[in-house]
Design a protein that fits this description.
This protein is an alpha+beta fold. It has a single domain (3-178), classed as Imidazole glycerol phosphate dehydratase, domain 1 (Ribosomal Protein S5, domain 2). 34% of the residues lie in helices and 31% in strands. Helix 1 links the parallel strand 3 (27-30) and strand 4. The longest helix has 20 residues, at 159-178. It is an enzyme of class 4 (lyase).
């Protein structure tokens, strides 16, 4: 069973996460940041991973610490739940349209953490979610999970739609990459 649970407590945040890779897309997410909760719920639903995430952060300062720390802990859970990576497909890619916006996500579960992010957002925030935190969350997640992650929004005008398309495309690409298709380690080097 590919499952992990983690806790992280700092002077800025207190977070508990459990993640089941082979789930049904059930989510129980409470961060105090409504739009972020919505995006994580979509990530869970479209990846078919079960996610429980409870976070308390210093939101009176801003949303940065909470969102980044959620990305860190989610990445760590993802990496632990994968185990030795034997049999996974390893690569994932997905285009997702959201009305006028189109996002493309490509990833490699390679243990070589990297983020390429191309998305221009015009709004400062959506609700109490700072739009600049999309990139920060993705970087924290990718670097802790050991994923090479390329995120490109090809076009669009509505920032809500662009961000939602990113999270849905990430979910579908992750679902593809973690799919078990054998018992071999998917690397010619013999190690990931």
């Amino acid at each position: 069973m590919r499952y992990a649970t983690k806790e992280r407590t700092t002077k800025e945040t207190d977070i508990q996460i459990s993640l089941r890779l082979d789930g049904s897309g059930k989510a129980d997410v409470h961060t105090g940041i409504g739009f972020f909760d919505h995006m994580l719920t979509l990530l869970s639903f479209h990846s078919q991973m079960d996610l429980t995430l409870l976070a308390q952060g210093d939101l009176e300062v801003c949303d940065h610490h909470c969102i980044e720390d959620c990305g860190i802990l989610l990445g760590q859970c993802f990496k632990e739940a994968l185990g030795d990576k034997r049999g996974i497909q390893r690569y994932g890619t997905c285009y997702i349209p959201m009305d006028e916006a189109l996002a493309h996500v490509v990833l490699d579960i390679s243990d070589r953490a990297y983020l390429v992010y191309h998305c221009e957002l015009k709004r400062e925030s959506i609700g109490n979610f700072s739009c600049e935190m999309v990139e920060e969350f993705l970087r924290a997640f990718a670097f802790q999970a050991g994923i090479t992650l390329h995120v490109n929004v090809l076009y669009g005008t509505n920032d809500h739609h662009k961000i939602e398309a990113i999270f849905k495309a990430l979910a579908k690409a992750l679902k593809m990459a973690v799919m078990i298709q054998g018992n071999e380690l998917p690397s010619s080097k013999g190690v990931l």
